[in-house]
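no rush on this but wanted to send it before i forget. theres a chain ive been looking at and ive put its sequence and its fold in C-alpha cell form underneath. please have a look and point out which stretches look like helix strand or loop to you. thanks a lot i owe you, the record is right below:
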Amino acid sequence: MNRRVLSAALTVPLPPAEAFRLFTARGERDWVPGWDPVLPVETPDDTAPGTVWLTSTDGEETTWLVASRDFPRSVSYARITPGVRAGTVTVALAATDAGSEVAVTYDMTPLAPEVAKALDAFAADYPSFIRSWTELIAAHLA
C-alpha cells in the first residue's frame, strides 16, 4: 500500500476571487455531474474552516471537512471514506493574464490493502481526471 500525492493544474478564465467558488462544496454542484453534497448543519459559508459535508458516490460515503481557507488563494479539505481512503484535497489559485491557474493536489492514503489498487488506478488516471475538470468548467461557463 502506498500513500499517493497527486498534483495537476488547470486554467480557469476567471480571476481567483470568482474562480474560488467553483471549488467549494456548493460551487461544484454547478459543473460536476451528480455532485450533491449534504451539509448536516446549514451554514452560509461552506468554506469556513470546520465546515462538514457528506457525499455519496459509486456506493462510497465520504465525509469532508474544510481544513483551511485563504480566500481567494487556497482551500484545503480533509476527506475520509471509511475503510477505503483518507487524505486531503488542496486547491491553490494564482492570478494569470488568462484568469487563474488552479493547482489541485490530492494527498490520499488507502485504508486497507484490498482498496490500494483502486487508489493506484486513480493515480494513473489523475492527469485526465483534472483535464475533465477543465472541460466541465468551460462548458459551465459557456
Remarks:
- Helices lie at 16-19, 116-141.
- Residues 116-141 form the longest helix (26 residues).
- The beta strands are 4-12, 52-57, 60-70, 74-81, 85-96, 99-110.
